[in-house]
Amino acid sequence: MLFDESTAGQITMEKTPAYFVEDEVASRVHQMNASIRLLVTFRDPVERAISDYLQVQWVTLCFRLNQVLNSVLNQTSV
Asked: What is the pTM of this model?
């Protein structure tokens, strides 16, 4: 279960914007824990889209760089 390591009385936080993409998420969270309190914050949608795009580009660049470096480092000299 998520947050098994939380102790009684401890405030546990988690952030995942994808939770609110699906309509049934709120009812599923309520079924899991009816006393849960949710705090939802909103961002400018354009700013959020740009941020998401840049993050995907960065991750893609790092992945490709890692592939190139591994390829170079794994080459054997003849």
From this structure: 0.47
